Amino acid sequence: MITNYLIKSVSKDSTNYKNERIRTKLGYAAGVVGIVVNFILFTIKLTVGILTGSISIMADAFNNLSDAASSIVTIVGIKLSNMPPDKEHPFGHGRLEYISALIVAFMVMLVGFQFVKSSFERILHPESVVFEWIPFILLLVSILFKIWLSRFNKSIGDKIDSSALKASALDALGDVFTTSVVVISFFIARFTVFPLDGYIGIVVALVILYSGFSLVKETMNPLIGSAPDDELVDSITEGVLSYEYVTGVHDLIIHNYGPGRCMASIHAEIPSDINIMKIHDIIDTAERELSEKLKIYLVIHMDPICMENEEIKSAKKELDKIISYNPLIKSMHDFRIVGEGEKKNLIFDIVVHSAKLNKIMSEEQLKSEITNAIKQTHPQYNCVITVDKDFR
């Protein structure tokens, strides 16, 4: 309820979360909330840690302080990522948001390393932990705060597609676990003299390290170049195919320049006998409408396909039959016959399962198998094959 109220207050009831202005405002709001909540939790836990002499509680406190700093980094990252394109960065600065999420991850890991060391020292030189009910209750309340903050960040992160906020949501969820472990160990301390606090401190620190490592892995993927979202791929493919005279699509490439900043190119197959001005107008319309609808920059390349020639029809039918028996091959496109007389080239592309290629056979073996199958019935044909790899 509080989350929905804050979102509505900031976005003025608009649900167009991909709008740059609304996205920025929601990102700022989430960052400010993160700073306030985490600083309050840091103050509470640090006070409790000092009063009780618990290293694990103080470790958890400084983990919250790093979270507050992370929220500041998130705000700065969103601000910088919204800088307009310039000469050096013609597609904008959207990837800075991924870098800010990466900084958050390294800050989390730094806190983890520090408290592995502090907790190990506590094991070597144990100190008694004083249990009190009021600090215990305050720690329980801090868990509820973190549960809410995790849900809050995830809700806004999903709406505006922010890697930094999704990372913060995951970090907050990890904090729920670590604080729960700290609370349990704090409660057990009233019944035993065993130096449990140091061991729990190491557990908390290791969980913090793992959380940081997971965040590094998640935020590095889009920076390195991760596979595009399946939903976006399907939307582009189905969108282009919905236009008149487009009979097939292939060679879709998507470049991610940050949340809401994607550039895509795709080849659209069209009949070769269509008036060039007419089909050009259709392709221009498709580029413009789909770019607006999907919030991307789309470029469509036209591939004229001739299927009226009887020789082409017969050869393609024969080739379709050959490749249908191969589990590696998903589809074929750009089929054409080039040359005259007795020697002709069949030129075409095949799309293969990338994960299966080289497990069943190599790329060269695959080409050779198709060529040999064609030559058994049509020795005059030479195959010129391009292999496209599908990573889905």
TrEMBL record:
Gene3D superfamilies: Cation efflux protein transmembrane domain (1.20.1510.10), Cation efflux protein, cytoplasmic domain (3.30.70.1350). The chain crosses the membrane at residues 26-51, 98-116, 128-149, 170-192, 198-216. SUPFAM superfamilies: Cation efflux protein cytoplasmic domain-like (SSF160240), Cation efflux protein transmembrane domain-like (SSF161111). It is found in: Membrane. One of its GO terms (cellular component) is membrane. Residues 33-221 form the Cation efflux protein transmembrane domain. Pfam families: Cation_efflux, ZT_dimer. PANTHER family: MITOCHONDRIAL METAL TRANSPORTER 1-RELATED. Belongs to the cation diffusion facilitator (CDF) transporter (TC 2.A.4) family. This is Cation transporter. It comes from Clostridium manihotivorum. The lineage of its organism: Bacteria, Bacillati, Bacillota, Clostridia, Eubacteriales.
